[in-house]
Specification:
By secondary structure, this protein is α/β, with parallel strands linked by helices. The protein contains ten helices and eight strands.
Length: about 290
C-alpha cells in the first residue's frame, strides 16, 4: 500500500471522528477479519508512537499503517498462514525503510470469541468487518468489551444493511453458506447498536462510509463474486478506479462519497464507550492469557 493511503481515504467529518477516537490512546485493540475480497473497511491512523494494537484477524492494512507510524502491534489470527503473511509484509516494509528499526510486531494465534488477552488490556478497540462473519457475535462483542479498559472506546464497522441486502439478493455466492467463512447476517443500524449495548457498552454515535464501493460490489455479485477481478472488463475498470481513489483521494470523489454516504454507504461504523465502573465476565481461568504492559 502507498504510504499514508489509509488516513487519506477517510474524508471530512469521518476523519475527524476517527482522529478524536484515537487521541491520547496508549493501547489499542484492532480487530479485523479474513475477507480477501473486500476492498473496503475502517481506515485508521495512530497518533501515539507507543500505541499498542491487537489485530484480531488477517486483513492487516490498518495495522501496517500503525506500524509505519511507529506503533507496537500485536497481530492475533486463527490462521497461522495469515500470521506468516503479516510478518512477511512487515519485513518488506522494514526493508524499504517504511518502518523504523525500533518498531515491534508480535503475533498470537487466537479466536475473537476467546481472545487470549487479560481483562482491561486496551484503551481502544477497532472491530472492522468482523461481526458479520461470526455466528456467535454476542460472544465476540463480550470478549472485545472484556479486553477494553473501563473508559475506553470501541469502533465497530459492518456492511450497511441496504447495500448488503442488494448483494445477497443478486448472488447467493456472496454470503454464507455458499461462501465459506462469508457473511452470516445483515445488520441494521439499530441491531448493531443494541447488541453493543447488550455487551455493556454505551453507544456514542454512528456514521456511514464508502458509498462508491457499493456499486462495485453489486457489479461483482452480478458477474459472480468468485470470478477473478481481471476476468471481467467492467469489474477490472471499477476496481482500478477504487484503487486510484484510495491512493489519490481527489476532492471530487471525496465530496461525492460524502453526499452519497447516507444512502449508499457500504459500511456502518458505530462508536461506543465502556463505562468507567463496568463489570463484565472474566476470561476462562484455563485460558492462557497475554498481559499487555500498562
Amino acid at each position: 500500500a502507498a504510504p499514508g493511503w489509509l488516513q487519506r481515504v477517510a474524508e471530512g467529518g469521518e476523519q475527524g471522528a476517527m482522529e478524536a477516537f484515537l487521541a491520547r490512546a496508549r493501547h489499542i485493540v484492532l480487530a479485523r477479519v479474513d475477507n480477501d475480497r473486500s476492498p473496503h473497511g475502517l481506515e485508521v491512523s495512530v497518533e501515539e508512537p507507543e500505541a499498542e494494537l491487537l489485530q484480531a484477524a488477517s486483513e492487516a492494512a490498518a495495522a501496517f499503517e500503525a506500524l509505519r507510524r511507529g506503533a507496537h502491534v500485536v497481530a492475533c489470527d486463527l490462521g497461522f498462514d495469515e500470521l506468516h503473511r503479516v510478518r512477511a509484509t512487515v519485513a518488506a516494509m522494514a526493508e524499504v525503510e517504511e518502518i523504523g528499526p525500533d518498531v515491534v510486531l508480535e503475533t498470537a494465534n487466537g479466536d475473537a470469541t476467546r481472545l487470549p488477552f487479560a481483562d482491561d488490556s486496551f484503551d481502544r478497540v477497532i472491530a472492522s468487518e468482523v461481526m458479520e462473519h461470526i455466528h456467535d457475535d454476542d460472544a465476540a462483542l463480550t470478549e472485545l468489551t472484556r479486553v477494553l479498559r473501563p473508559g475506553g472506546t470501541i469502533a465497530t464497522t459492518v456492511p450497511a444493511a441496504r447495500p448488503e441486502r442488494i448483494c445477497w439478493k443478486i448472488s447467493s455466492d456472496y454470503h454464507a453458506p455458499a461462501a465459506v467463512g462469508g457473511h452470516v447476517r445483515i445488520y441494521g443500524r439499530h441491531k448493531l447498536r443494541d447488541r453493543m449495548a447488550a455487551a455493556g457498552l454505551v453507544v456514542d454515535g454512528d456514521h456511514r462510509s464508502h458509498a462508491l464501493h457499493s456499486p462495485y460490489w453489486w457489479l461483482r455479485c452480478a458477474v459472480g463474486p468468485n470470478r477473478p477481478i481481471e476476468g471481467n472488463r467492467l469489474v477490472r475498470i471499477y476496481h482500478r478506479f477504487l484503487t486510484w481513489d484510495i491512493v489519490k483521494a481527489p476532492r471530487t470523489t471525496r465530496t461525492l462519497d460524502r453526499i452519497l454516504n447516507p444512502v449508499l454507504g457500504k459500511s456502518l461504523v458505530v462508536y461506543a464507550t465502556k463505562p468507567a465502573q463496568a463489570t463484565h465476565p472474566t476470561a476462562d481461568p484455563d485460558r492462557e492469557l497475554v498481559h499487555v504492559p500498562a
